[in-house]
Amino acid sequence: MQMTRILLVVTCLAALEACERSPHELILVTPSSPIDRSIVEDLGELFESERVLTRVRLTEEPLSEEAALDAIASGAADIALVSNNLAFRRDIATVMPLYPTVLHIARRAGNDALAGPELLRDAAVFAGTEGSASRLIFERIVERIGLEDDEYRYISNTSEMADVVVVFAPISPEQIANFPDLVLSSIGTPDDVGAGGIVDAAVLLNPNFRPFVIPMGTYGDATPDPIVTIAVDKILVTRNNLDSSVVYDLIHDILRLRPALAAKRPGLFQQLSEDFDASRSRFILHPGTQAYLQRSAPTVYERYSGVAEVGVTLIVALGSAFIAVVRIFRVRRKNRIDRFYAATIDVRRTIKDSNDPAERQQAIVKVRELQNEAFDLLVDEKLAADESFRIFITLSNDVLRQLGAAGIDDHLSDA
Question: Is 269 helix (H, G, I), strand (E, B) or coil?
């Protein structure tokens, strides 16, 4: 008996172990940007070291953001980290925003007197990789100020001496440390934010951007004053037909690992919230993301339970009122028939000891009138054809019989 119990317990444990889901593996595109690549590598290491519902494997080859979206759409990868300023695509869906990237515009110290085209003419410009958010922003700048492509040159790595740096990057001191002797440029003052300045115009024309102020001293000598700039989120995206439960589990894992991520990069992940805002996303939200954001929302039954309670209360109140009205009508009808009872009994008492034929005939007429009136009220539905009415007819016919009236049986049959 004891051995049977042990075998039963072992069987149950084995069944539970078999039922436990194995983690779902997702292929994450390795970003071409070094700092973004470093961040996703940290994320991949945490997913490997922790007990999670999903696993993340990075691709061997780094891809630009546009190429990453193509890889996701083709099924070569599952998720990618991209800037939230790319063109809308129907086959791509947003999983969640991860961290903000801030536009850093830096110039070489001593070039303060130069501005606009003069600052960029014959300059060595580092603007990130081709197709990146910072490269796109720089191309818009040079197009607006009317510079030709041959009036400046791009540098592709940080080992070359840069005259101008235009890059979207997380707040990271080592990012500027790669470019010594540079000073960050501001596109306004903190008081300009919300006052209709150029930063507000940039946000108005690009709703996925938001104003951002880099505090004084964040980058040491490179930020002698507060720097007003713009920020755009780095968002995790996937194809829109990826299983919703997998996306739900991925969001759950990332948010559960938030303290470990924040410990490595506190400036990035400290503000990551369970109720993140994806309203500025350039792509549609994935159904798994919607399910996660609405996880605490009341169900249809809970949402309308208050209305249902009010409805039930109203129904009960109306039912009670209806019953009360029915009772009132019954009481009124009962009061009416009681009047006929009292009048008939009063006639019987009046002629009980009388032998005068005239008085008896008068009493018979009185009783007949009561019967006729009762039938009229019955026709008008002011009296009910119930047992009380039959009792009155029986009572009145008994009185007529005692008075010796003729045709009593006919009245009785009519009742």
Answer: helix
- How is residue 88 annotated by DSSP? P
Question: Which band of pLDDT confidence, cut at 50, 70 and 90, is reported for residue 14?
Answer: very low
Q: Between β-strands 210-214 and 227-239, what pairing exists: parallel, antiparallel or unpaired?
A: antiparallel
Lookup result for tokens 């997998």 = 246
User: Encoding tokens for residue 78?
Assistant: 């599952």
Angstrom CA distances, 219 to 160, 224, 226, stand at 20, 8, 10
Angle between helices 387-403 and 305-350 (to 10 degrees): 0
**pLDDT of the residue at 359:** 78
Is a pLDDT exceeding 80 seen at residue 225?
yes
Residue for token pair 């609405």? 294
Burial of 141 (0-12, 13-18, 19+ CB in 10 A): middle
Q: What is the Cα gyration radius of the chain? A: 45
- At 196, which helix (H) or strand (E)? none
CB 127, CB 135: distance < 8 Å: yes
Mean pLDDT of 171-188: 72
Query: How does DSSP assign 6-29, residue by residue?
Result: HHHHHHHHHHHHHHSPPPEEEEEP
**Predicted TM-score (pTM) of this structure:** 0.62
Please give the Cα distance from 135 to 146 (Å, whole number). Answer: 16
Q: What whole-number distance in Å separates Cα of residue 93 and Cα of residue 84? A: 12
- Assign 98 to helix, strand or coil: strand
- Other CB atoms within a 10 A radius of the CB of residue 79 amount to 23
Per-residue tokens: 225: 């004053």
Looking at residue 192, the DSSP 8-state letter turns out to be G
User: Beta-strand (E) ranges in 260-386?
Assistant: 284-285
By the 10 Å C-beta count (0-12 exposed, 13-18 middle, 19+ buried), 98 is classed as: buried
Q: Is the pLDDT of residue 236 over 90?
A: yes
Residue with tokens 């019954």: 330
In the prediction, which pLDDT does 157 show? 67
Q: What is the pLDDT of residue 29?
A: 93
**Where does residue 55 rank: exposed (0-12), middle (13-18), buried (19+ CB within 10 A)?**
middle
Look-up of token digits 């954001």: 293
